[in-house]
Amino acid sequence: MHQRQWNGKLYQGKHEALVPVELWERVQGVMDGRNASKHCRMTHDFAFSGLIACARCGCSVVGEIKRHKCIYYHCTGYADKCRGEPASCRRKYVREEVLEQQFTAMLGRLRFDDEVLEWVREALHASDADERREHQEAIARLQAEHARLGERISAMYVDKLDGKITGAFFEEMSGKWREEQRRLQRDIERHEEAEQSYMDEGLRILEIARNAQALFERQPAREKRRLLKIVLSKCTWEDGEVVATFRQPFDILAETTAIAARAATAGQATSAKNEIWLGW
């Protein structure tokens, strides 16, 4: 027999309980513990979790809090990915501060002075003029094709009125041509949007690149991760070292900065400017 509470009153049950009270309480305790541990795991936002893969096995590198304060990263080391030796990956840890220092150094490769900034802006303006011309030529071609299809539809409508073609044939062909006109219009709008945004996008990229290191150093974990996803790709980790490649066009900017630095050391500013222009 068991008792049951309903609307604040206790009733005597007439059936045997399906689950013993002791077992029920133990199960609830386990479930509460799981929920509590899930909640604890979700309270900390690890800056680099989900960004890095283990270079040896390809598994994700994730963050973990140890000794209640220090953050370490390690390979998850799933057995189905680690060539039969998952433990060797899991045993290696790296502190978050070490990873942060390495990412900060990478972003420092994008930092450039005012002279290089002016050179890149000049290149961007020249490229923008070429880009605008190409978009305008494409828009003109698309508009001409759109108008030609409109003339076809009008001429065919006259033929239908004159009885030269059937109404069904007119509907079939005009429907195809109107669909083609809608596709052309979408292409025209895409070119118009690209024409307007090209220069703005280029300047935003310059701003991100030039300030990436400073932004990274003072941002919270979520923003650090977001910035790294914008700038870097293919991040891997092995024996405490992070290797990553810059996404386009940040790879060009990194190379530009390296060229300018080498030229400044050798006293060849003009040569550096020419190389930067060729890169863009």
UniProtKB/TrEMBL annotation:
Source species of the chain: Jannaschia seohaensis
A Pfam family: Zn_ribbon_recom
GO molecular function: DNA binding; DNA strand exchange activity
InterPro entries in UniProt: DNA_bind_recomb_sf (IPR038109), SSR_resolvase (IPR050639), Zn_ribbon_recom_dom (IPR025827)
Coiled coil stretches, renumbered: 132-201
Keywords, in A-Z order: Coiled coil, DNA recombination, DNA-binding
Protein name (record): Recombinase zinc beta ribbon domain-containing protein
Ranges where the Recombinase zinc beta ribbon domain occurs: 48-107
Transmembrane segments: none
Highest taxon, organism lineage: Bacteria
